[in-house]
Amino acid sequence: MPPTTQKPTLAIVAALVVIAVFGYVMLASPVAAQTATSTASSSTASQTTGQQRGQMTAPRSRGGPFQQSWPNPNGARVRQLEQNQVNISVGQTFTITSTQGKYFVPGSTSANGTASGTVTFTVTGKLSEGYTLSLTGGSITVAGTTYTISSGTAQMNRGASGITGQGVTTPTGDFLLRAAARGTFVGSIGLVSIDLQSGSSEYLVILAGSIQS
């Protein structure tokens, strides 16, 4: 009798062991899969964050104020190169004389017409980053009225190719000026844009012509 009782007992124990192992495997598999998924997600998130930080962080500029670089949306750098300074003496003058010109009235599509004028600049100072100028003569004719330039100041870049300035006129008027030369202002052709305000009237003037120095 004892041998007969022992065989069923061993079979029951073996069956319980198999069930326990099978249950452990079934429980462990989802946990392992979830852990692997969480690890992969964390790794991907870390890489994405690192890439975003790399794109959002601007590289430090190197060099002087005319050798700065900035990142553009494609990741390339845009570099502003230093201009070579043109040798212009203090006291030198140059005049832009229009050969053609137009004026426009802001806010109007019909109030426009031809314009003409001359603008004379005198170099008053030479700096490491450009030149200081004074407006010493000239006039602007627009809408049948001639405005004589009384005085003004301006700045020219070190390459002598761009000018920005402001001045006053007679009859009473104020103006902002921007000029660009094809080459330099030491003998070339140029384009002048002027925002002229006189009383309640305002004109946007564009003059193109030759430069005499």
What features would you describe in this structure?
The protein is α+β, with helices and mostly antiparallel strands and 213 residues long. The protein has 2 domains: 2-55; 93-212, Lipocalin, CATH 2.40.128. Helix content is 26%, strand content 48%. It is built from 1 helix and 10 strands. Strands 3-4-5-6-7-8-9-10 form an 8-stranded antiparallel β-barrel. Strand 1 and strand 2 form a beta hairpin.
Features:
1 helix; 10 strands; about 210 residues; 8-stranded antiparallel β-barrel; single chain; two-stranded antiparallel ribbon; Lipocalin; about 25% helix; alpha+beta; 2 domains
Question: How are the secondary structure elements laid out?
Answer:
Elements: H1 2-56, E1 69-71, E2 77-79, E3 93-104, E4 112-127, E5 130-142, E6 145-157, E7 162-170, E8 173-182, E9 188-198, E10 201-212
Antiparallel strand pairs: 1-2, 3-4, 3-10, 4-5, 5-6, 6-7, 7-8, 8-9, 9-10
Summary?
With 213 residues, the protein is of the alpha+beta class. It has 2 domains: 2-55; 93-212, Beta Barrel (Lipocalin), CATH 2.40.128. The protein is 26% helix and 48% strand.
C-alpha Rg (nearest Å): 39 Å
Query: Helix segment count?
Result: 1
Uncertain regions spanning at least 5 consecutive residues: 24-33, 48-82
Kindly, what is the distance between the CA atoms of the first and last residues, rounded to a whole number of angstroms? 132 Å
Q: Report the major sheet.
A: 8 strands, antiparallel, barrel
CATH domain class of the largest domain: Mainly Beta
Broad structural category: alpha+beta
Portion of residues in beta strands equals over 45%
